[in-house]
Amino acid sequence: MARLAFVKLRDTLVCMKWIIPPIILALLALPAAQGQNTDRVPLFQFAAFYYQDDLEFCPGANMTINGPVHGNQNIYLDPNSGVSLTFASAVTAAGNVLLEQNPLDPSSRPITGSAVFDYPCASDVSPWVIGPGYPVATNAYSVLQVPPPGEHPNGMMGTNRLYNMVDMIITISNGNVITVSSGIILNNAATIIPSNQWSGFISTNGNFFNMRDGAQVSTINLDVGNLRKWSATNTILRPLIANAPWRDPFDGDMESIFIADERFLSNTLILTNIAGCTTNTVITTTGYFPANGTYLPPVATNTTQTTSAIYPADGTYVPPIETTNTTSTTTTNLPSAGTYTGTISTNTANTNSFSAPDPGSYSGSVTTNTSYVTNTSYPAAGTYVGTVTTNKSHNIISGYSYYQIDSYTYNLIEYTYNLITGYIYEGITGYTYAGITGLTTNYAYTTNYVQYAEPGIVLTNGGWLPSNGLTVVTPDPCYIVGNWNCTNGTGQGKVQSFDVSRTLPSAIYADAVTILSPAWNPNCSTNSMAGGARNAAPDTVNAAIVTGTVPSDGFNYSGGLENFLRFQENWSGVEFYYNGSLCCLFDSQIANYPWPGTGVVYNPPTRCWAWNTNYANPANLPELMPWPEKVMDPVLNFQAAAVSQGQGINLSWTAEPGMVYQVQFTTNLPGGNWQNLGTAYTNIPYVFQQRTVNDSCGNPQTFYRIVATSWNALIGWP
User: Are residues 469 and 487 in contact, defined by beta-carbon separation less than 8 angstroms?
Assistant: First the structure.
């Protein structure tokens, strides 16, 4: 019986026959440049991607995931009893895909619902890693952090930090000092943007209480609507962006922004005198928005679909304009700006008229049509051409002969265009709210406590992004208030919909991401959900989200993928539409309090979630998106090598879906000269299969290896 030894390389596994003593080489950490086989795909090709933690998915209502799902560890699927969890695309795990509860999840779920896979799921696949220096076990949070002093942007770490890749950098330091500059990638942040430029879209108002973390949130507010207007018109940042060699020279709109709160977290003794009271209210409907202090939020905006011949004034409708009505029109006058849509076609029509055309109203030359006439009166100026002949008889004038102008023939210029005849929109008819009728004082007390401030980046007015879309990066927790990315560059879009045809590329990178509905009021952040002040309103977010989680630890459940996006309101019965890609790359470093369950901090929405199908088109991928690499050696193992007298050797290994394998042999390991044994194994389906090859060459010493020659992404990316 031959003695067998195995040589493991990054892209090959070698079986050596009849080697005494066995030689085992452990080349387990070769970089890609030295032969490691990897494939790269866009991160947002996944509907859900977990980088270093177990992916847990335990929904309480039926859900369908329409895009690929991958976890670099285990995937635990434990839907509630009677709940169906459907995966319409590939599900893969570097560990195992398990229809059971995570052993570290202390929740009580005695009966597991069902999981339906439209494609067979695959376990023990190769993991995806992100960039040089970020193996699976490394916390990838550092890609969001501000670089330390002395770190070069083009170094190994510097090239992975998103701080070095954005168009604009915003930081706030002690004393609420805000600094706004151009990006490192544009000109090494050399351009400082003055406050009179950014004051319209950056503020530090509206602090609130984070009930999950039990901390006051000290906010930086980014008004994205005002940022969009500034981005389209400023003369400071636009030239830098347009001059960047990788950007369109005619388009200086910003695409990415980095925001960091670098104020030290404060622990301050606060003395507070509070006079408690009950606010008496009555439900009120008025035709105007109530003044501050006269109502308790939220305010419901009442609308009706309206058709008007004029564009509605700001504040009289709820954007966007749903439809612009037009009719094809042909006139001889050029239409004024704002009265038409699209392009103007210039046409000409052969015309005959009794008067000469005005300059600029015709094309080419004008033909003057005449007839020779004789009249007793002298013709008026402009009614004839040439000379006038005076006819006489016996020296008495008997008449005048001349060429009378009958008409003019020319090519009249006409303009054809789509004339705007009206607009259809949701016109505001009034506002309904709890009007304050009085206050009843019922308690008073004084308290001393320590205030802990948690940073928070608050994104508001983001329904309409800059023309190229927007990627926001922050190392801090992020809060998205109201609809996000629901409108394209022309102001048209949809909310409460899976239709992403009118959205723009967008991504949010943050320590944690919390969704706050359009009804959110920071002044009510400490209120109980029972009173209605924290009731959510329907909301839509269209963006890829890269953030962290607080994993299950045996004492607390992570919340699972179903609670990966965080909430702070009562969403019971309220729909939340999300179209994007959910990517968990690290453990949250700041907003790191465990998942609190439901009922106090929030109640979950009706989850209308989908992978954003725009991400199947490379042109629609958001800025700064990582490209994970797949290392292909973890499953490359000979499972058996059986030698029998006169029958040669049978080599068996487990084949991974989508990969192509070639077995090779040589009789002299130091000399190389590897030769193919048989043909390559291709078309491995979406399940793992064992492959076996036989060699009956009979050489007294033979070395074998299997080479993974290529890999085709499960999700169809080229």
Answer: no
